[in-house]
Specification:
mainly alpha; two-stranded antiparallel ribbon; about 10% strand
């Protein structure tokens, strides 16, 4: 794999860490919001529906900071909420337990993407980041001579 294609895409380790961060932040933020809303010892349906926004916000936050992909983050965040966090929340878990459960769930749900990203072949398409950056740079002509003695003009992008 060339350095150009490696610089253009997120590696498997970064996606794995992004899944961990998404799950960790979702577990911490959602359980903190639930604790905050239930100070009166009553967690109503309106408070629950309001707390459902938190995983999406955590996915956007990790996407902006870590650049692993928005769809990836949203899927990992809501799967983390759906299966472990609501389950242990009904069981009476505290914020620390929910944070650890969120981190473990983020690792589990982020692993398929990380494995896929680590082992997929590089994609070298014409619309690379390098060609987008250098598209506005002028090219300079250079004169070359062929084996038969004919003169020609070549345009090179990089000198």
């Amino acid at each position: 794999m060339s350095e150009e294609s490696r610089a253009r895409r997120t590696t498997g380790r970064e996606v794995f860490a992004g899944g961990l961060l998404t799950g960790l932040s979702t577990g911490f933020a959602w359980s903190s919001i639930v604790e905050l809303f239930s100070t009166d010892q009553l967690f109503s349906g309106t408070e629950f529906l309001t707390s459902l926004v938190v995983p999406g916000l955590m996915a956007v936050l990790v996407w902006k900071l870590w650049r692993t992909g928005l769809v990836f983050g949203v899927i990992v965040a809501y799967l983390t909420l759906l299966i472990p966090l609501i389950g242990i929340g009904l069981g009476g878990a505290n914020v620390l337990q929910a944070t650890f459960a969120g981190a473990i769930a983020g690792i589990v749900y982020g692993s398929p993407w990380a494995i896929w990203r680590a082992f997929r072949p590089p994609t070298d398409q014409g619309g690379s980041a390098e060609s987008a950056i250098t598209a506005g740079t002028p090219t300079s002509p250079t004169t070359t001579t062929t084996a038969t003695g004919e003169a020609g003009v070549e345009f090179s992008r990089f000198e």
